[in-house]
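Input/output pair, single chain:
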Amino acid sequence: MAFGVRLHVTGPRALYTRPEMKVERVSYDVMTPSAARGIIEAIHWKPAIRWRIDRIIVLNPIRFETIRRNEVGSKIAAGVVKRARAAGSTAGVYTIVEEDRQQRASVVLRDVAYIIEAHFELTAAAGPSDNEGKHLDIFNRRLARGQCYQQPCLGTREFAADFGPVEGDPVPHADLAGTRDLGWMLYDIDYAHGMQPRFFRARMVDGVITVPPPQSDEVVS
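Output:
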């Protein structure tokens, strides 16, 4: 982890949706690696680097609550978007929210706080001006200033994440002591192979989840 980073992430609510729940949204117990990667990439990402999540440290007790939310019931079809792109026009690419709104229950996490530990690697897209020190400095500078390309979220867009450097030496709450099997959890989406979801068996030890590398046998499709 020569070029590793740490950041502190908090929020009043979070929703890391379990894909096996088809009707109502139900959150995983903790942040998923893909959600952690999304937060980091919102702060700094370039084609020249690839982020890897190493550990997720859960600081607050895991608590759930059920809420009801208004959602749009459907998505714009991918074919419509492709035709609009080919035509160079957005005509016909819309959805009428008032006609497609539905209310759904969601089981969400409340009062969450995490420390994300990650590192990056240079990719084949890195040019002569790219080096590890440069990108590490950019990330740490943007993190300290609270800068991001888009507002990072805690699973879904309506639950915004507050983020910043890790100050002091925060430790997980005493309720998180011991080993807890969190079951199969979404690891990330393999965009290079047809957006295939990948999973791993998540275990939390004293509030710490160690994330295996993507090539590990622990990560399966």
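The chain has a mean pLDDT of 90. The longest strand covers residues 101-122.
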